[in-house]
Design goal:
The complex is a heterodimer. By secondary structure, chain A is α/β, with parallel strands linked by helices. The relative contact order of chain B is 0.16. Classes of the chains: A alpha/beta, B alpha/beta. Chains A and B meet through helix 7 and helix 14 of A and strand 4 and strand 5 of B.
């Protein structure tokens, strides 16, 4: 028995990656996720419209101070109406929009963005304790349904698996089988190989996106308010970014086991840090930045915007750009590494051509 | 061998090959032999264009005119024989007509014609190597690089594989193969033996066996263990030129003896 344990210890010590994963990772995970895993809402973005906006503002700020929530008033518009308030909510500018009545005595109505599940719950609880009587109405997800919050994000999670795990495994499988080296000496360029390799996974990923979204909408009664193309476009840029991570992982993995390890290390943080479960606003600033280099963060924003709120494209282009930039950087890096990995065929040919020239 | 065709001149790959030269000729099978770590695979990869050298000159044709079969690979196990062939044909941009002709030819030559719908993973070891060879030669390369094409294959299949390799050479292809079976290298037209990344011995097999310095004798029990090696149930022992040969039968030395004697000489010189 001891002989077996001794052998195992020796093997684990040689496998640096597994060792690092077993010793350093738990600590890192605990610290990062400890700071990230929080449902506590300490900040609410509020817009106030209507003739009495000024008076309501001071009442709300008092309320916030009493309850330890920072009420960030993003806009005070005395000429605004319920329609403008709703539009701003739809475009994700605030969590709450308060519409005041005509006269000083009339009851203001707080419109709450139900797509931000935890912020909405905090807003409802908070407003109930307000010294002035404020009515509340939840928009987009009136029953504060958890599945409406989760399903759009889970669609993204499924695509992360396809994009990162399946892609990296597909490439590492060629490396393990020794066929990658053969591809390298065939008349292919690195870009041919990568593009040809990824195209089927990309297509499968998009089909998955369609299936999962349809099933999600039908089975869980999740709304789909925005145009389909907005989600499809999001899926395309998102898949590109996740596949970039997949290729990158494949260039630093020699075996499928290593690839799975690394893919998990890239995928797991996305579950907890992307805003999929815990709202970004609740995360400590020290870990929140990690969310902004993870592709799922942006896809969750896109899918929730499109499906639940039906946000106009003009008000939600940033996550698309972020994904495109992220995808471009990761893919560029992956292609660079892959090309170096693939060997010198092309450089060899150049050298050959030079030799021929010298000879002639 | 004629200069000017494919080969390598004074090639060095850090830690793996040290000043190795090799000339290939159309229609000739060149065998590179040596033990594990001798640098055979490295040299094959250099000749296939898969590895860059640190110094020296590499003379090889463009990728579309090279056929490369790496050790134990060269095909997709989860594709059928027909699908593997189709992929190779597309990769090398064979037209449909040429592909059909070449496919039928290599299937006939390898005897894989009855197994076209079988997954490569489900083929026997020998048949897998035949498939790898079929794929490597499908596009009629000018240079065929084979890394241990017969390793782990039964003797009957090895005969078949050599027939296929000889067929390629007969068609005027430059064939170079690495093998750890020295007896097999005897069938090649030219042999390069590597030892620790350096050239140990080079020439036609018959030349190499006749050029052994000193005497190789065959005996039941060796006189000098450091210069003797097992051959079957008996021993072969080398006596360097100038020393008296202990009275026993003189052996008929073969390529394996020639390579071992060269290695012994190298060890003595290095000491």
């Amino acid at each position: 028995m001891l002989a077996m344990a001794d052998k195992e210890f020796r093997q684990v010590r040689r496998d640096r990656r597994t060792l690092a994963m077993m010793l350093a990772l738990p600590l890192l995970l605990l610290v990062v996720f400890g700071y990230a895993a929080s449902f506590n809402i300490t900040e609410l973005q509020v817009e106030i419209v209507g003739p009495q906006a000024g008076a309501v503002r001071s009442a709300l700020e008092q309320l916030g101070a009493d309850q330890g929530i920072t009420i960030e008033v993003t806009e005070v518009d005395e000429g605004g109406t319920r329609a403008t308030a709703e539009k701003d909510l739809r475009n994700g500018e605030n969590t709450v929009a308060v519409v005041t009545g005509e006269s000083a005595g009339s009851r203001p109505l707080a419109l709450i963005d139900g797509s931000q599940l935890f912020s909405a719950q905090a807003a409802i609880t908070g407003l109930a304790k307000a010294p002035v009587d404020i009515g509340t109405e939840v928009l987009f997800n009136p029953d504060l349904d958890t599945s409406a919050y989760m399903v759009p994000a889970i669609i993204g999670l499924i695509l992360v698996f396809i994009g990162t795990m399946v892609t990296s495994l597909g490439i590492v499988k060629e490396r393990e089988a020794g066929t990658l080296e053969q591809l390298a000496v065939m008349p292919f360029t690195a870009r041919d190989i990568i593009a040809g390799k990824l195209l089927p996974y990309f297509a499968i990923g998009l089909v998955d996106l369609a299936i999962v979204t349809t099933v999600g909408v039908l089975l869980f009664d999740v709304p789909f308010r925005g145009p389909i193309w907005q989600l499809a476009l999001g899926g395309v840029v998102f898949l590109m970014a996740t596949m970039g991570f997949g290729v990158l992982i494949s260039t630093v993995s020699n075996t499928q086991g290593q690839a799975i390890q690394l893919a998990l290390m890239v995928t797991l943080p996305q579950v907890l840090l992307s805003g999929m479960v815990f709202p970004l606003e609740s995360m400590a600033a020290g870990v929140r930045w990690i969310a902004y280099v993870l592709p799922l963060t942006y896809f969750v924003q896109i899918s929730r915007n499109v499906m639940i709120r039906g946000t106009e494209f003009g008000a939600m282009w940033e996550p698309y750009v972020a994904l495109a930039v992220l995808g471009g950087v990761v893919f560029g890096l992956a292609l660079f590494r892959f090309r170096r990995d693939l060997g010198p065929s092309r450089r060899m040919q150049q050298r050959l051509a030079r030799d021929v020239e010298e000879a002639g | 061998m004629t200069e000017g065709s494919f080969g390598v001149d004074h090639v060095t790959v850090a830690g793996r090959l040290d000043d190795v030269s090799l000339n290939l000729a159309p229609g000739t099978i060149v065998a590179v032999v040596g033990g594990d770590g001798a640098g055979k695979s490295t040299l094959m990869r250099v000749l296939a264009g898969a590895l860059l050298v640190d110094s020296g000159r590499v003379r090889i044709p463009g990728p579309d005119r090279v056929g490369f079969v790496p050790t134990g690979a060269g095909f997709y196990p989860d594709l059928t024989v027909a699908e593997n062939l189709r992929f190779a044909a597309t990769a090398y941009r064979l037209g449909e007509v040429r592909f059909r002709g070449r496919r039928d030819y290599v299937l006939g030559l390898t005897g894989l014609g009855d197994f076209t719908e079988r997954l490569a993973a489900d083929l026997s070891g020998g048949m897998r190597q035949k498939l790898a060879l079929a794929l490597g030669t499908l596009h009629e390369p000018e240079l065929l690089v084979l890394d241990e094409p017969t390793t782990g294959v039964d003797p009957v299949s090895r005969v078949d594989l050599w027939r296929i390799i000889a067929d390629a050479a007969a068609g005027g292809v430059h064939v170079v193969l690495a093998t750890s079976y020295i007896d097999e290298a005897e069938r090649a037209g030219h042999v390069l033996a590597l030892h620790a990344g350096r050239r140990l011995l080079e020439g036609a097999p018959s030349e190499l066996t006749t050029a052994i310095p000193g005497v190789v004798s065959e005996r039941h029990r060796p006189e000098e263990r450091s210069r003797a090696w097992r051959r079957g149930t008996r021993w072969h022992e080398w006596t360097p030129a100038g020393l008296s040969v202990p009275g026993d039968e003189v052996a008929e030395p073969d390529l394996e003896d020639a390579v071992i004697v060269a290695a012994l000489q190298r060890e003595a010189a290095d000491r």
